[in-house]
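Page 37, continued from 36.
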């Protein structure tokens, strides 16, 4: 299958590009490294599918990623997403997958189990933009396009800019580490979910993508260090995504075994 991938050089997009190539797909990378940025027309003619992972934000920040320019944030991300979805229809692309976020559900009560079809309740501009892009994406279904918005949780993986870089540095330097528990998914598992959805004959409008509930105490306990661990956080208020839809489609994430296997590379890349 010939697939156009936006954000191909991003933290998630790089894993998606590799997974697509391993699966035998032909990939057209759409990113700044290849002369394209969100909001510009994209070379989509002749492609069977579009996977939209591109998102413009302040470095290292998603919630709050608008910085001091909320208007520009919305115009680039929501306007750019709407434009490329419409262009996909006009160019005859038959399938569009969108990397959304668990942030669309931040306004649901603490402890809510997040089902695949739960209506969004964002509390951040980031979540609002993702939720509005989902609405635009879903509208393509009435025009004969197969679509799915994948609502991903926190993504980790062995890259130099990995999400726990500062956490590992603080812990190893014996600086205070605040308790926290969150839901996580390995970037390779997220990429595999998107590859899987390329072959689904009738994907649902939205699916959750999450794997493990991880406390910082348990994460740092995997590091060979004598330093004291932070106390465990209260997990009762955590909103945990229900991923039965992806699992029913054949998705098999790596769980704690994949985290343990990945951790040495993440620590090696840490300063």
């Amino acid at each position: 299958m010939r697939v156009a991938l936006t954000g191909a050089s991003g933290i998630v997009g790089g894993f998606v590009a590799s997974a697509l190539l391993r699966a035998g797909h032909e990939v057209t990378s759409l990113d700044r490294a290849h002369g394209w940025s969100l909001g510009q027309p994209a070379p989509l003619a002749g492609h069977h599918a579009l996977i939209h992972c591109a998102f413009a934000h302040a470095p290292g920040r998603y919630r709050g990623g608008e910085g001091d320019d909320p208007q520009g944030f919305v115009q680039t991300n929501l306007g750019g997403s709407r434009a490329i979805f419409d262009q996909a229809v006009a160019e005859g692309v038959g399938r569009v997958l969108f990397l959304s976020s668990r942030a669309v559900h931040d306004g649901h009560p603490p402890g809510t189990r997040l089902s695949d079809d739960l209506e969004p309740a964002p509390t951040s501009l980031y979540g609002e933009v993702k939720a509005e892009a989902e609405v635009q994406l879903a509208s393509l279904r009435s025009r004969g396009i197969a679509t799915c918005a994948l609502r991903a949780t926190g993504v980790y993986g062995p890259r130099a800019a990995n999400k726990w870089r500062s956490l590992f540095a603080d812990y190893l330097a014996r600086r205070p580490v605040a308790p926290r528990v969150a839901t996580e998914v390995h970037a390779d598992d997220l990429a595999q979910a998107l590859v899987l959805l390329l072959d689904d004959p009738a994907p649902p409008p939205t699916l959750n993508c999450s794997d493990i509930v991880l406390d910082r105490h348990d994460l740092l306990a995997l590091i060979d260090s004598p330093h004291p661990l932070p106390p465990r956080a209260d997990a009762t208020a955590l909103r945990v995504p229900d991923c039965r839809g992806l699992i029913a489609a054949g998705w098999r994430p790596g769980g704690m075994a994949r985290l343990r296997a990945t951790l040495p590379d993440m620590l090696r890349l840490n300063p």
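Residues 70-90 form the longest helix (21 residues). Flag for discussion at group meeting. The radius of gyration is 18 Å.
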